[in-house]
Sequence to fold (1180 residues):
Amino acid sequence: MNKIVLAQIDTIAGNIKINAKKIINCIEKAKENNADLIIFPELALMGYPFGDIFIRHKSIIERQLKALDEIAAKTENITALVGFAEPTKDANKKPFYNSVAVLQNGKIINIVRKRLLPNYSEFNDYRYFEPSDCVSQILELNGERYGILVCEDSFNDKSFFKEECIYDVDPVAELMKQNPTTLINCSCSPSRTGKEYIKNALFSSIARKYGVNYIYVNQAGYADNLSFDGTSRIYNKNGELDLRAKSFEEDFVITDNLTGIINELPVGMQKKVEVQNFNLDYTSDLDRTYKSIVFGIQEYFRKNGFKKAVLGLSGGLDSSICAVLLADALGKENVWGISMPSRITSSESKNDAKILAENLGIHFFEVPLAEGIDAVKSLLNFAFSNVDTEKYEKSTTIENLQARLRATILWSVSNEHKQMLPIATSDKSEAYIGYATVNGDMSGGFAPIADVTKTKLFALGDFLNENREQKNAIPQAILEKPPGAELKINPKTGKTVCAEEENMPYEFLDEIIWFVENCGYGFEDLMEHKFYYETKNCLTIEQKEEWIRKYFWKSKCAVYKWHIIPPSVVVDMHSINSVEYRQPIISCVY
Amino acid sequence: MNKIVLAQIDTIAGNIKINAKKIINCIEKAKENNADLIIFPELALMGYPFGDIFIRHKSIIERQLKALDEIAAKTENITALVGFAEPTKDANKKPFYNSVAVLQNGKIINIVRKRLLPNYSEFNDYRYFEPSDCVSQILELNGERYGILVCEDSFNDKSFFKEECIYDVDPVAELMKQNPTTLINCSCSPSRTGKEYIKNALFSSIARKYGVNYIYVNQAGYADNLSFDGTSRIYNKNGELDLRAKSFEEDFVITDNLTGIINELPVGMQKKVEVQNFNLDYTSDLDRTYKSIVFGIQEYFRKNGFKKAVLGLSGGLDSSICAVLLADALGKENVWGISMPSRITSSESKNDAKILAENLGIHFFEVPLAEGIDAVKSLLNFAFSNVDTEKYEKSTTIENLQARLRATILWSVSNEHKQMLPIATSDKSEAYIGYATVNGDMSGGFAPIADVTKTKLFALGDFLNENREQKNAIPQAILEKPPGAELKINPKTGKTVCAEEENMPYEFLDEIIWFVENCGYGFEDLMEHKFYYETKNCLTIEQKEEWIRKYFWKSKCAVYKWHIIPPSVVVDMHSINSVEYRQPIISCVY
Fold:
């Protein structure tokens, strides 16, 4: 049996020098360990996702080919599978094939090209790649026959996906005609809600169906709003998981019998997999959500040369969760939490923010805003007809002004401190209905929770309090009070207006979002849909219709804001992050 | 000969009701005029560009098909060509064909599908469409044979594009085998620098080459950062332009002999076209640039329900040009110019801003910022080790604070006034090197000049002063002084630092930008390139290298800002607007 290395590396798009060096280092290490074969992820040498960079920076292409030769030269007594963007050199074709070079004893002995080019969701393969014209995908090595696949080529199994197959051809079925004993899948597959369960069941079923071993090598890293989780693995001929590399971390796994360490499995996932439906509830996705965001923060900061973060701490849910994620990602000493109370901020909120910061051990400052707001307000007198009236004080203008002044302070602090980024704390539920302020809470150098809905954030809060080494870092009050930006007072109650009064219950809103994102529900579908909220609350048909209409109206007006969300981490299976979903601002969906 | 209508309409993506009503109104009007044939643009019924909206809003698809039947019912005694997104109804295929329905006497008598699916630049056809499986593209009508093409299908003529053809097949050549007497091209083609000249030469050469009439019907409108210029036209069998509809405006042109009014031709364009190279300089593109932006502003505001704009007037070039464009687009009564001088703003700048506003007749206010800045500064003391030092006063923090406070004021004013948008005044040269402030001058609800370089803006200033009805609206001083944000003082000169001191001459920078965008130049190419700046100035090789390296370094750090540019108008043939070009923030191109 061959000794094999799964080289689950992290790359940077276009940074050929760094990527090549990392690949060569791995090959050297594999040779030291007398490995026969080392496998890298899809597009490892070019780095992925690379967007349009090569269109305007053509020299990258030459540099990549030169580097591939240099890597090949290092493959004496070893075989390496290295993903790269292979120029088609034909003006009538797309610029590249998405290829895996088979390097052996100093030479490129074969090139395997990707056949299925995904062009949905975050994938734009067809913008850059020609489909494979199908050369041999078999690598023979010491009596073993390895069948090489590139990512999507393994995602069209007709017995698994049935009527959901989106391509005619199944490259695995075709490849099996060449009698491989082991399949190898080189991938760049970002982590999304539920995807791990699908991949696990799919790969296992392919191994079992064809009676072959299945080796999956995935990139670990973050770029362009996507967290790639690595989690490379091997299934045996019975479809059993025999090896599982680290998640959200680079890894270098050596195996001489296709088995090894199985790193921590997600909730509900079994070593022996039968094809099954996973009804994902929050519980089974919280750990992944946490890891995926923490990893995204670490990678974004590191790769862009930042070390510290500053965020506003309101004593509310969003900023509290962000503070925990940042502290865990960057270290408590690198996080600055600033409480910026205005005249209407409650003493409870101020107190909760402070306790949270103390619990986490992050830097904490309190900066009362009142005088700053007054000064800016006085600059605005020229533009207002109703200055000095109660209406003025309660206007959207003054609400937003507070949020914008807070962001201005955060950006100023980040300007003054080297390698520090301000953090946008707004969440996905708010993004959908535009309930976040431009240049305010949705402004920042990074937006950790922009793809997490409010109800999931509440669950995540409980999860973090239970599962972090330090228990209950988030004060219980924060997890219990109704969300609200504390930007204005309800004259009837004398208290700050909570968000659900202005919009609708988050539980209801988040269920709309889920069905729009995952099932393409329109107005009629939603009206017919029995909401979970309805099973627990008395809801008139008029109220239901009002909320659904409000959702459509508010989300129509919010599209502009979706286009300017700061860098973030796509967490859910679907998102409004522009890396995945693009809705023109001028459009009508309802 | 048939009486033909070119229905150059403006549509809204997904707004089936409005689009269908407009199409039906045009058909009714055509029938009143006894027309035989009416031609609409590509995807007229669905509206274009529609991005991903149908993926999450599936009911749009059904509504579109229903509307198509309703439109067909209106075609007694007339034939209508209506572009629509035709569902493939096959899970193994992309969701749609990009089709033109041939409607006649109440029925859909044929459907012509697009063969060539562009997937470069702003086009993402392959994300949504299957290529045509080639049914008949001929419409026979009263003895004439019309060959129907959809946009890109006419853009692969091998004798015209030669080695730049990007597809194997030329659908026009294939279609000609069916002996049409007239070609009809239904398009959605956005306006870009130089594109009009290419289209004119291409269509003319096709008409001449095959000895057929050529009818081109293009959408007029704006969406998703793209201005569609309309400018539908007809060429005769000799390749001569015989009819030219309005540009950047809807039009309804009736012709009974394929000739008619030829609306204003751009500089250098002839009625009789030979294939030619157009060396576009600024002069021949300024009028189009102006119209394209003004149209974009009008459409964006109208379609989103806004009427008024507020912008900061610094007395500099960028804000002055924006003020003129806004006044012309929205009417002077709908534009608010706010001068917001800080302590270091020169009296000249204040004065220039005021004169400009008076010339244009827009609303004008002067709001001295000093006290507001002081108040916010005092809130920041907690974060700074060097408060009360000279260094603090001159820090980037304080520079940016001024810009951010200005934007806060503009957003506040827009909040307070109904249907008002704040304007981002930063330009393309600044965007490339990140010389614009997040939440400051690059923040707004619309960014009119985000795709216009500084040198082109100077030329545009002269052009506007000469060619607008009101001459010399922009004070000459604004067009002559060196650009600079007036955010800090140079201690040596005692004057505010101008931008070229901090960066490099704009003429040099803009030439880099041009060659990167249009020719994919890298570092070595630029070092070898003889800059126009070099022909006029003494430039050492060290200085040249320093500037080029500075460009690459600064643009690498600026990528984050490219992702959050507000809605704008793509003007040049290439852009950094994300509708066209996407570079991951984590990437390396140099």
Summary: Confidence is low (pLDDT under 50) at residues 275-280 of chain B. Chain B touches chain A through 96 residues (CB under 8 Å). The two ends of chain B are 60 Å apart (CA to CA). Chain B is about 40% helix and 15% strand.
